[in-house]
Amino acid sequence: ESSERLALGEAFGIKAPQKK
Predict the structure, then answer these.
(1) Is the model's pTM score more than 0.70?
(2) Above 60 in pLDDT, residue 19?
(3) Residue 1 three-state SS
(4) Cα 15 to Cα 7, 8, distances in angstroms
């Protein structure tokens, strides 16, 4: 579970750093 959330967060940070 935590792994998937981290992977999504990383993808979002790299794809949409503004959404951080």
Answers:
(1) no
(2) no
(3) coil
(4) 12, 10
The conformation of residue 5, written as its DSSP 8-state character, comes to H
Tell me how far CA of residue 2 lies from CA of 8, 13, 18, 19, 20, in angstroms. Answer: 10, 16, 22, 19, 17
Q: Which residues contact 12 (CB under 8 A, 6 or more apart)?
A: 19, 20
| Four-residue CA torsion sign, 11, 16, 17, 20 | negative
> Which residue type, as a one-letter code, is found at position 7?
A
DSSP state of 20: -
* pLDDT tens digit sequence for 1-13: 678 877 777 777 7
